[in-house]
Design goal:
Blueprint: H1 11-21, H2 27-57, H3 59-75
Length: about 80
């Protein structure tokens, strides 16, 4: 279902709209494009946030990372060489 939306743009929003319209889009096409692109970015960020939280809560993964850090620290050359 189509929905009409009326907005009042500030100077920064006008400049942003001009950037999106630079490809020859109408105001409506530019706004729809910007909304879709923004929604997609937010979905990706949300998925990344959820993955970070999942990994942070995984005790076995955290233990494995601790062991790897210790092993890597052992590979660092001594300063007394």
């Amino acid at each position: 279902m189509a929905r009409s939306l009326h907005v009042r743009l500030d100077d920064a929003s006008v400049a942003a709209l001009d950037v999106v319209r630079a490809d020859g889009l109408t105001d409506s096409e530019a706004v729809r494009t910007a909304l879709r692109e923004t929604a997609a970015r937010r979905r990706v960020r949300s998925a990344i946030r959820e993955e970070v939280q999942r990994v942070a809560a995984d005790e076995s993964d955290r233990e494995e990372m601790r062991i790897i850090r210790e092993q890597m620290a052992e590979l660092v050359p001594s300063a007394n060489i």
